[in-house]
Design a protein that fits this description.
By secondary structure, the chain is mostly helical. It is built from six helices and no strands.
Length: about 190
């Protein structure tokens, strides 16, 4: 079975531990795999894609003009600049924005980057609920959290989740009240 995929040279050693992620990002051509699809002779989609003759003219296109930067845009440290076009619907703000800024200090190759972004998403959900309440809008959590659909499709699973949640809350309340009771007894004993 013949393919046109060339063998890749052995990976060079990664940048030394003395270089910061930002210094590494400033040298994109030194990153393993950077621009790997720029060589038409080494097209990784070869067996699946049917060439039409004009496939590699995509390398000679006129780039779109840079979208104006009129708000804070977070971008990967692997990229020296922001992309030409980017989303502006939800600029980073509040606690979730601070968490996102922290996440973008790390390389996209680290779990820290992605787990911190997931945490920021969760925090943003609660910020949205608080913002709704501040504007006098009572959120319909039954619908917005998908509980109505789950009740319709997976009633047994939802009942199980509710029972486990109720058990966890009951246990937490009992543990906290027990600790508070001990503290009250201890402080009364030593008065």
């Amino acid at each position: 079975m013949a393919t046109n995929v060339q063998t890749r040279p052995a990976r060079r050693a990664m940048a030394g531990p003395t270089q910061s992620d930002r210094q590494i990002a400033a040298q994109p051509k030194d990153l393993p795999g950077w621009g790997m699809d720029a060589d038409p002779e080494n097209d990784p989609t070869y067996p699946m894609k049917h060439a039409n003759g004009a496939d590699h003219q995509r390398l000679d296109y006129e780039k779109a003009p840079q979208q104006p930067l009129d708000m804070e845009i977070l971008h990967s440290i692997e990229r020296p600049n922001v992309t030409r076009v980017f989303g502006t619907s939800t600029p980073p703000k509040g606690l979730s924005g601070a968490i996102r800024r922290y996440a973008y200090k790390f390389s996209e190759a680290t779990a820290t980057h992605w787990m911190t972004l997931i945490l920021a998403d969760r925090v943003n959900v609660y910020e949205g609920i608080i913002e709704d309440l501040a504007h006098g809008i009572i959120p319909n959590l039954w619908v917005e959290r998908g509980w109505r659909a789950e009740w319709k499709v997976n009633r047994a699973g939802m009942i199980q989740k509710m029972a486990v949640g109720a058990l966890a809350v009951t246990g937490a309340v009992m543990l906290i009240s027990r600790r508070n009771g001990k503290k009250a007894r201890m402080s009364a004993r030593y008065r």
